[in-house]
Amino acid sequence: MSDFLAMSGYAAYVWPSIGLTLALLWLNIVQARNALERAKSEARRRLSGGDDA
Amino acid sequence: MSWAWFHRFGSPPYFYAVAGRLVPWLAWPAGLLILAGLYGGVVMAPPDYQQSDAARIMYVHVPAAYVGMMSYSVMALAAAIGLVWRIKVCHAVAAATAPIGAGFTAVCLVTGMLWGQPMWGTYWAWDPRLVSMLVLLFFFLGYVGLRGAIDDISRADRSSAVLAIVGFVNVPIIHFSVTWWNSIHQGPSIIRKGGPAMPASMWVPLVLVIFGFTFYFYAVMLVRARAEVLRRDRGGSWVRELLAPEENP
Above 0.85 for ipTM, yes or no? Predict the structure, then answer.
């Protein structure tokens, strides 16, 4: 296991690369969901307020 | 041949509904392909005979590069269709694509730097492949910045579409940069004459991650495009019908 984690000495390059990529995948999901929720609540607010866009 | 199906996608309520139904069908295969591909590449695949385990960066770097370039192509095509046929949904798709494409391009550059340091002895070189990829990131950021700077949405659509189309010339330049010029970067190693330059235990996981990232891109992009369509049409009657039931519970 520690051999695997050591990546034959390249751990400092391999793991940050993979970690960064996974972080991007996670961030995109969060941002997309937030954008849709924000658009929905914004639209609802306008409808209930009788404010025409 | 009838183009009615195509025009239907130009209708915001139709797009919003169909995109919403498509997302889970893209997201689940994406998750499975990415998990299988990363497991195959990072855990199962043999180390490279020259680069040892440093070559495992390939399993995230190459798919990120591919999605960065593919998403720019999607953005430019959607922007062009939106500009020529004045289809707002297409502009929404282009606007939704830009931040995602910028993210993948940035990850491609950073993982490339993390791969370059141990293998080339430097994080960065002013090399044709590296510079053209950096230019791609600047086009994505320029597109996002330009849209943000223009308040009127249809003017923002048109101006940013022109920028997206002009920037597309960079995509084939990135692809051929390693062939046209003497580059420090290696050439194509999967799709090339004589087949992949690596054993199946390496290229199969790589291809799985590429497909996984592609599905993932479309899933996330469609969610953002739905948000974009909703934001533009928030006063529209279809939005009223869509959101009314939740208004008075």
Answer: yes
